Amino acid sequence: MWRYQEALAGPMRATTEIGSHWIDLVRFLTGEEIVSVSATYGKFTPDRYVKDGMMYETLQEGSEKIRVDSDDAVIAALRFGSGAIGNLFLSEVTHGRSNYVSMEITGTRQTIRWDSEDPYKLYTAEKFGGTLQETNAFAGGFPNTFSAFFREVYRDMDAGTPSAAPTYPTFQDGYRNAAVCEAIYSSANHHSIWTEVK
User: Fold this and answer.
1) Does 18 share its domain with 95?
2) In the chain, what is the straight-line distance between the N-terminal and C-terminal CA atoms, in Å?
3) What is the distance between the alpha carbons of residues 72 and 42, in angstroms, rounded to a whole number?
4) Does residue 160 lie within any of the structural domains?
5) What positions does the domain Gfo/Idh/MocA-like oxidoreductase C-terminal occupy (predicted)?
6) 150: enclosing H helix or E strand
7) Could you report the per-residue pLDDT of 32-50, keeping only the tens digit for each?
8) What distance in Å separates the CA atoms of residue 118 and residue 102, rounded to the nearest whole number?
9) Is residue 159 part of a domain?
10) Is 73 in the same domain as 93?
11) How far does Cα 121 stand from its chain's mean position?
């Protein structure tokens, strides 16, 4: 229940719970930094009910009524350092979706598309060419991805220094991610004005 309480989890929910993963992924895949945002928030049902850590819109037997002031949905326009543009849609209230993250990146010669509900498939399309679907399972399956992540982190900790090119998110990555989330929050709370990521 802590994640629905601003005093414990902060003023953002969709932005940080879903958006932070999307932001990390787009930065990793493109090598680009988001430099400014224009965002709007949807806050639909302020009074909710929580039972066993799950939030409900209607009264459930044995549930507790709470007030939720954080974002249920986010729509944001993005500008990247290279001049590229993007858009982001996040929702904590979309029926039939559970932690859904998708991404489509279009360049001058190619487009790639991926979504978390079918994580082993990557779709690519080339200019003047067809569309290709590639199936590529995680190295040892999704659970083993976490083991590999922690193994690399602890290897660097044991060495006393990060590797020259770490394959895991660094503190700098976390800082940049938080800065983008803060810019989204600021923009959404100031009439969607374009806000620089600091």
Assistant:
1) yes
2) 31
3) 6
4) no
5) 2-192
6) helix 142-159
7) 999 999 999 999 988 999 9
8) 10
9) no
10) yes
11) 19
Q: How far apart are CA 33 and CA 185, in angstroms?
A: 17
My answer on whether 79 and 111 are in the same domain is no
Handedness of CA 169, 173, 174, 180 (dihedral sign): negative
Q: Which range marks the domain in which residue 131 is found?
A: 102-136
Instruction: Establish if 7 belongs to a structural domain.
Output: yes
**How crowded is residue 123: how many other Cβ atoms within 10 Å of its Cβ?**
15
State if pTM tops 0.90.
Answer: no
Cβ neighbors of 87 (< 8 A, separation 6 or more) are: 75, 76, 77, 78
Q: Please report where in the chains the tokens 């940049």 appear, as a residue.
A: 176
Q: What's the Rg (C-alpha) of the chain?
A: 19
- Asked if residue 23 lies in contact with residue 197, where contact means CB atoms within 8 angstroms, the answer is no
Determine the 3-state secondary structure of 139 from DSSP: coil
Distance (Å) of CA 81 to CA 33, 41, 86, 106, 196: 6, 24, 12, 16, 11
Q: SS3 helix, strand, coil % of the chain, rounded to 5? A: 30, 30, 40
Whether 16 is in a domain gets the answer: yes
DSSP string, 156-179: HHHHTS--SS-SS--HHHHHHHHH
Could you report the per-residue pLDDT of 59-90, keeping only the tens digit for each?
Answer: 999 999 988 889 999 999 999 999 999 999 99
Residue 69 to residue 106: CA distance in whole angstroms: 35
